[in-house]
Amino acid sequence: MGVVPVFQPEPARVRQMWHLLEPLHAVLYYAPEAVGEAAALGYATDERWPAYFAWRAAPLGPVDAGPVAAAFYSFSPAMVRRYVPAAWRTAAPGDVLAARLRAVDRFYRRLLGDAVAAEELVEAAALARRAAEAAESAGRPLAAANAVLDWPEEPHLVLWQAATVLREHRGDGHLAALLTEGLDPVEALVSFAAVGAAPVTTFASRGWSEAEWAAARDRLAARGLVTADGQATDAGRALRDDVERRTDRLAAGPWAALGDKGMTELAERVGGTWVAVLGTGLLPRENTLGVGKV
Q1: What pLDDT score does 288 carry?
Q2: Per-residue pLDDT tens for 191-242?
Q3: Residue 72 to residue 168: CA distance in whole angstroms
Q4: SS3 letters for the chain?
Q5: Could you tell me the pTM of the whole model?
Q6: What is the pLDDT of residues 55-96, one digit of tens each?
Q7: With bands split at pLDDT 50, 70 and 90, how would you rate the model's confidence at 4?
Q8: Which residue in 215, 184, 210 sits closest to 73, CA to CA?
Q9: Cα–Cα distance for residue pair 94/103, rounded to 1 Å
Q10: I want to staple 135 with a disulfide (CB 3.0 to 4.6 A). Which of 120, 159, 254, 287 is the partner?
């Protein structure tokens, strides 16, 4: 008997699954329920960053700014130091993890009502969990930290946690792709803005100074990747295409494990929730991830 070929998803399908699941995770950073939970923990809510760093870094434990800056990569280390480790003086990581699940639970119950228990969502949660549990976490700190958390029982929370593991798995792989192509944290943003992923002003949220941005642009110009005014050259576009293709390849493992049929079923079953989340208008149309642009 011949060897049964192992399913390898096309990069476009891997990216499609990210585009479907990323909004389901990202509501944590924008939902009013999350703002309320953050305020109850004692975080300032006049800006989103105190809670953002707490929500996203909590799986790592009460770490200092260095590991968070390394894992988040695109944020200026100076910006990270403004919020970490101060986040853990406000609330312990375990309390933050409990609060973020409460926030997600309240948001999805408000959004979906009785549909949180619908068979379609139950099946979507089971499929997403299968993919998340197949995600290899070696060399992927944020994926690993989220993967070892206890699974909740409610299907809508299972779906959210699986989406979280999978997006951090992809994100960790994306950092490996950036490093492979020799792009430091601020160069990664400058090169992404150069191909039109989002306006330069959108990337200002990552905390880099104008001088740091200009210096990175000059370094990329010296490599022939951008023009003097920050527009991508053909070589710069090719490099970013390589980064995205490598990211898709590194993110393919969980989807290879789920299989073609499983990917199709998950996409079909999660579609209604995806539409509902986007319909809230909570998520910004312009974002530093380039969702919908690449």
Answers
A1: 64
A2: 999 999 888 989 999 999 999 999 999 999 999 999 999 999 999 999 999 9
A3: 10
A4: CCCCCCCCCCHHHHHHHHHHHHHHHHHHHCCHHHHHHHHHHCCCCCCCHHHHHHHHHHHHCCCCHHHHHHHHCCCCHHHHHHHCCHHHHHCCHHHHHHHHHHHHHHHHHHHHHHHHHCHHHHHHHHHHHHHHHCCCCCCCHHHHHHHCCCCCCCHHHHHHHHHHHHHHHHHHHHHHHHHHCCCCHHHHHHHHHHCCCCCHHHHHHHCCCHHHHHHHHHHHHHCCCECCCCCECHHHHHHHHHHHHHHHHHCCHHHHHHHHHHHHHHHHHHHHHHHHHHHCCCCCCCCCCCCCCC
A5: 0.94
A6: 999 999 999 999 999 999 999 999 999 999 999 999 999 999
A7: very low
A8: 184
A9: 14
A10: 254
pLDDT digits (tens, 9 = 90+) for 124-142: 999 999 999 999 999 999 9
* Cα–Cα distance, 32 to 28 (Å, whole number): 9
Structural tokens at position 105:
């639970």
